[in-house]
Design a protein that fits this description.
The complex is a heterotetramer, with two copies of chain A and two copies of chain B. Chain A is α/β, with parallel strands linked by helices. Chain A contains twelve helices and 13 strands. In chain A, the strands form two sheets. In chain A, strands 1, 2, 3, 4, 5, 9, 10, 11, 12 and 13 form a ten-stranded mixed beta sheet that branches. Chain A has a three-stranded antiparallel beta sheet with strand order 6-8-7. Chain B has one domain: Glutaconate Coenzyme A-transferase (3-Layer(aba) Sandwich). Chain B contains six helices and 13 strands. Chain B is globular and about 50 Å long. By secondary structure, chain B is α/β, with parallel strands linked by helices. In chain B, the strands form three sheets. Chain B has a nine-stranded mixed beta sheet with strand order 4-3-2-1-5-10-11-12-13, with helices on both faces. Chain B has a two-stranded antiparallel sheet with strand order 6-7. In chain B, strands 8-9 form a two-stranded antiparallel sheet. The chains are: A alpha/beta, B alpha/beta. The interface between C and D is large, with 58 and 47 residues.
Chain lengths: 291, 268, 291, 268
């Protein structure tokens, strides 16, 4: 008999599974090796479920047509991610306005095979006006006013985690991002990039710690969340992120030189994740200790 | 411990934090969002002074740290350092699966715009949603939180007529709607709604009957007229406007030595 | 300043929080020390969400008016729990007929403060006929036929777990029962009986392992799930359960002597859980090793 | 390994297990309920023989044990012994939160009653629901599972006209309703429905057009007439009814030495 099939692929193969126009959900810690590969490949017209500066990079790199958005803060005192803000104000991207409870309801409706889930958060607000996919309706049992949230169905969900075995049994350190498991359950296909591949026996030592069972594909990318954090491995590289934010802010004000240089240096010139890490330098990576 | 505190020694942010801290009750669950240092200080101060059974919820982790001798405000990166005191994760895929128990939960909200009935806007500013003049960051979880939590506080880093407006261009949370003590009940929103709006100039509450924003107290050195001049709508003005109580020596001692030893609240 | 308040109480105090007529949800592993205390106190007219032989005991002891039921097997080759079967056939208890997906939907509706949740499982079956609380309705977005499940709201949920600290931070070994967390989130009040109370520091070592944060009350009852299993501690006492099942079967056939003796010996004569354990005997308990 | 197997050496339960095992495909997720030893043997046999990527789901745990040399059927108490090979828990409060992925999932169901269109009843028997003549155990999770799984099998421990009835008194799962290949689609049920009904006498499938139960094969030594005599409704009868294939020597060897060394399937 044949033996059990490995789920391990590399980041190039993983992103080959994404096509222009697809819906891609991006969890946290941010799977940056995969995000950079999307930019490297120059994918277009994506609908993305993402937040913060990784969302900003995808928009700035021209990959995005629509954002399922509940929060697009810039960090570092910048209230709104610059490329997101500019593209939204100019009408260059469509925003599917929502909030966390509506987003999880939509993802859960998709995961549960339901045409909608009801939600109360957002009743009375402008959300159903600015997002006509959210229908105000009267519940069939008590006659209360609720929102009907339609399914949100990612074609592909991209996540970052601490470890996995070769068969896609994923375990996090310090918990997955709050929305990661919703995204995984709702998606047709889930790719998880991990710091480390471990033996199946290591997984079995604590099956309760398995946060995702049988992810479709595993990509081994140590330091793969850089410049973001990876719990248990390294903290956020704030200097790097601040450089990006400054470049994105300047681009939104009409000076795109620094942003072009950023993408060239970190996304387009490196051919693989290992090339990217060489670009960052091991001294800097090792400086991002946990405490 | 300073034996005698005078208002001149205090930053408005310290006054805000102490005011909020006193209003928080033991056993409550206090949820603090991103980039809210005043709120974080308030919650930690209350926890140390009178909240041994408070639960602090930061970024998906739930903790009780009342027995820590010092509680420096961490530079919250989204990394493992925020979970070092965790007793559990609030976000194991169940973030919104226990709203039934949110009567114990308190939260704090800012806003791009806030109107006289405590409705807030994080969506953006401008008449046309497709091409906003200012695109805001988005609602985060505030529509759901404001619907269900026991009560919440609107906490603003600045007090200006640009923020405190007659009417929000978009409402991302429903506070008291177009007013009236039964506004939330009529819509079926179970939570207690916004209690105070706290700014660097003053504290505002809501009229019991029509839930219109009303001056509750002014911080030392601020006049009611100065507050009105910086507010984009007519505030309800009681006959007597008291001064916001300043921290006691004990409160200030804990605030400055255990909660904010680096003085972030004095440099905002 | 006062210090943090302990949540630890004893089983007598815990069951004092339950009143006649309340809705009580009972998880698995089965919190038998609390179940026995309910029988000892002679509570009446309860609505119970429970399965199997603990449900059977509560019915046989006369505590139950209504069962929220998805499965009432007897085990040991007996397809239906005897007291449940007889009481249902005689119309002495009301059955709120459901199934696992409907039950979790109802519990989740309660936990999320919603007047209903939609569910597809059960469409086309007799469930909405025999349980008129389940409304067949047309979804407001795509017009599909679904069931609207109303909230199921336990007044009190009773659970068994491995350990807790004094503040109600509960950790299981080998996972909680599949429905335990639904029951806990839906209930006004949750009491967890545990094998062991541990230090808060022990909980903090692995916060991801915390399955229930801040249970309202903790009852320390080593061997408290006996005659059922407690993962990581002891296996099921099948001989004891078989004795109960035989007694319950005989009672349903008209000979209640053995069942009366069972309740007298194990529920009514022992005044506390410790007395019960004395009745069982330490030799037998120690024989229920894990492997 | 027996070089030559003859039907006389086999129990009907072994034939059922081997038939089911062959119909299961690698990479499928196989969910086994309580007290179904034939199904459990079938799943384990398939896993060892041709299913290295199968996932076995027992009582809330998910495992892949293809590399275990022996796989004795455990006396499944509801205790830690059932989780010893677990890779994850399927029941971390998310039991029904991934039905989207259940096209890969296969399950197996028994019944108090089964009708010609594969609808089943676990609720009870009798005209009046409030006072049933026989109160059944209840539906467990079968209504939801049968709605969504890729396909499922009806597996009966005995074949009698009391079980295989013209009409179920109550339907706890909807198989093909009142018949027709589009019956499930019309109701919006996405799963593939029941594929076979397997009993100690025979295997039955469903007519492609009207989804009425049809004799598919008889076990060695059983005639179609004997099956019909034990069935409470008129079975569709093909012109030729083949004999259910018996296990190959290799299948039987694995079944008897690695899956069921204690011979439980020969003593039922």
């Amino acid at each position: 008999m044949e033996s059990r099939t490995s789920h391990i692929i590399d980041e190039v193969e993983a992103v080959r599974r994404i096509e222009d126009g697809m819906t891609v959900a991006i969890g946290s810690p941010t799977p940056m090796a995969l995000v950079r590969q999307i930019i490297r490949r120059g994918l277009k017209d994506l609908t993305v479920v993402d937040v913060g500066l990784s969302l900003d990079m995808l928009i700035a790199a021209g990959c995005v047509r629509k954002v399922v958005s509940y929060y697009a803060g810039g960090g570092f005192g910048v209230p709104v991610a610059p490329a997101f803000r500019q593209a939204a104000e100019r009408g260059e991207i469509e925003v599917w306005e929502c909030e966390e409870g509506i987003l999880t309801s939509g993802l859960q409706a998709a995961a549960q095979g339901l045409p909608f889930l009801p939600w109360r958060g957002g009743v009375g607000t402008s959300l159903p006006e600015v997002n006509p996919d959210l229908k105000v309706f009267t519940d069939p049992i008590r006659g209360e006013t609720l929102l009907a949230v339609p399914p949100i169905k990612p074609d592909v969900t991209l996540l970052h985690a601490a470890v996995s075995d070769a068969y896609g049994n994923v375990q996090h350190v310090g918990g997955p991002g709050w929305i990661d498991l919703f995204m995984q359950r709702a998606a047709d296909h889930t790719v998880v990039q991990v710091e480390k591949v471990v033996a199946n026996e290591d997984i079995r030592k604590d099956p309760w710690a398995t946060t995702i069972a049988g992810a479709d594909a595993i990509v081994r990318v140590p330091y793969g969340a850089h410049p973001f954090y990876s719990r248990g491995y390294y903290i956020q590289d704030n200097a790097h992120l601040k450089d990006y934010l400054d470049a994105s802010t300047a681009a939104a004000k009409g000076d795109p030189a620094a942003l072009h240089a950023y993408f060239a240096r970190y996304c387009r010139e490196p051919e693989t994740h290992a090339d990217y890490l060489e670009q960052i330098g091991i001294r800097r990576l090792l400086g991002l200790h946990e405490y | 411990m300073p034996s005698d505190v005078s208002a001149q020694d205090l930053s408005p942010q310290e006054i805000m934090a102490a005011f909020l801290a006193r209003d928080l009750k033991d056993t409550e669950h206090l949820m603090v969002g991103v980039a809210m240092p005043i709120v974080e200080a308030a919650v930690r101060l209350a926890h140390l002074l009178h909240g041994p059974n408070m639960e602090l919820i930061f970024f998906g982790t739930r903790m009780n740290v009342a027995d820590r001798h010092t509680l420096p405000l961490p530079a919250f990166a989204w990394d493992n350092r925020v979970v070092r005191w965790a007793e559990s994760f609030s976000d194991t895929g169940h973030r919104f699966e226990d709203v039934k128990h949110w009567h114990k939960r308190i939260f704090f909200i800012g806003g791009v715009q806030v109107d006289p009935h405590g409705n807030t806007n994080l969506i953006g500013v401008g008449p046309d949603y497709a091409t906003l003049r200012f695109r805001g960051p988005g609602s985060v979880g505030t529509p759901t939180l404001s619907t269900h939590v026991g009560r919440y506080y609107i906490v603003l880093n600045s007090h200006s007529p640009r923020i405190l407006v007659e009417r929000c261009d978009y409402m991302s949370t429903y506070g008291w709607g177009s007013g009236g003590a039964d506004a939330r009940k009529k819509l079926g929103l179970p939570g207690g709604g916004p209690k105070y709006c706290v700014t660097p100039l003053c504290v505002m509450d809501f009229d019991e009957e029509d839930k219109h924003m009303r001056l509750h107290s002014v911080h030392p050195g601020v006049t009611p007229e100065a507050v009105q001049a910086q507010t984009g709508f007519a505030l309800r003005m009681p006959d007597q406007v008291p001064t916001t109580p300043i921290p006691t020596p004990e409160e200030l001692h804990v605030l400055r030595t255990r909660v904010d030893p680096e003085g972030r609240l004095r440099r905002m």
